[in-house]
Amino acid sequence: MNIIPEITKESIKNLIDSNQREDGRTIDQYRDISIETDVISKAEGSARVKIGKTQVIVGIKPQIGAPFPDTPNVGVLMTNCELLPMADPKFEPGPPSEDSIELARVVDRGIRESELVDLEKLCIEEGKNVWMLFIDLHVIDNGGNLFDAAELAVMAALSTTKLPMATIEDGEIVLDEEKTIDLPLKDKVAMCTFVKIGSEMVLDPTLTEESVADARLNIGVTGEGKICAMQKGGPQPLTKEEIFTCVNISMSKTKELLEKLDK
């Protein structure tokens, strides 16, 4: 076992035991957050979110396609994630890695299970044509806690997405690029990520804190205060008390995140 991570872990653990962190935050405090929308001119919706040194850009591209056979009157959501070496030297080019797949799936679950998008209103012609939303995540800088930054960026991008007016004429779909409609949204959602270091659950971990953590917990909460997604990561188990502590913190922190989104 590499002794350097053990020394680093002991140093971080000692700080956290005294309710301190390397960057001066308390264990339940977020880094500085900034949100910018409409950052990609060729996307129908886009956003850039920074949490500390972490930076994520999201683009939304709608496309008309056939619905799934078992949901003929429901639109389609597809979330993809790309982790490039420019964001973190440990990211490698090539096929999607496990980290890339997990990030996309956790973020997608928060959006999907919150029923954020009214997918039934994305139906153009039942059984034939629906709007398909392709959500592309691009990590620009990995400073830790990609999950919360990505979820917030997707939420911000979706809130600015506009669709061309679609009508059916003589059996053909006609798009009016001059007339657009807002993407039909029913709620809001944000995610809070914790890692377990020693005996404490730490909110919004930095990259260093993630590297020494024993476990991770992602909690997605809607604007109405309902838990819509939860993902456990890491080798160590979590107690019921630790999970409830994270849930309670998430309820208040989600409100703060969504307030930043509104601004």
Description:
Strands 1, 2, 3, 4, 5 and 6 form a six-stranded mixed β-sheet that branches. Strands 10-9-11-12 form a four-stranded antiparallel β-sheet, with helices on both faces. 28% of the residues lie in helices and 36% in strands. It has a single domain (6-262), classed as Ribosomal Protein S5, domain 2 (2-Layer Sandwich). α2 (98-113) packs across α3. A hairpin with a 2-residue loop joins β2 (45-51) and β3. With 263 residues, the protein is of the alpha+beta class.
Number of strands: 12
Largest sheet: 6 strands, mixed
How many helical elements?
Answer: 5
Structural class designation = alpha+beta
Shape: elongated
CATH class: Alpha Beta
Q: What is the level-2 CATH architecture name?
A: 2-Layer Sandwich
SSE sequence, one letter per element = HEEEEHEEHEEEEHEEH
Average pLDDT: 92
The percent of residues in helical segments reads 25-40%
What is the CATH T-level topology?
Ribosomal Protein S5, domain 2
| Fraction in beta strands | 35-45%
**Total number of domains:** 1
Write the layout of secondary structure elements.
Elements: H1 3-17, E1 33-37, E2 45-51, E3 54-65, E4 76-83, H2 98-113, E5 123-125, E6 129-141, H3 146-159, E7 162-169, E8 172-182, E9 189-197, E10 200-203, H4 207-212, E11 215-222, E12 227-233, H5 240-262
Helix pairs in contact: 2-3
Question: What descriptors fit this protein?
Answer:
single chain; 263 residues; alpha+beta; Ribosomal Protein S5, domain 2; 6-stranded mixed β-sheet; 4-stranded antiparallel β-sheet; 5 helices; 12 strands; 28% helix; elongated
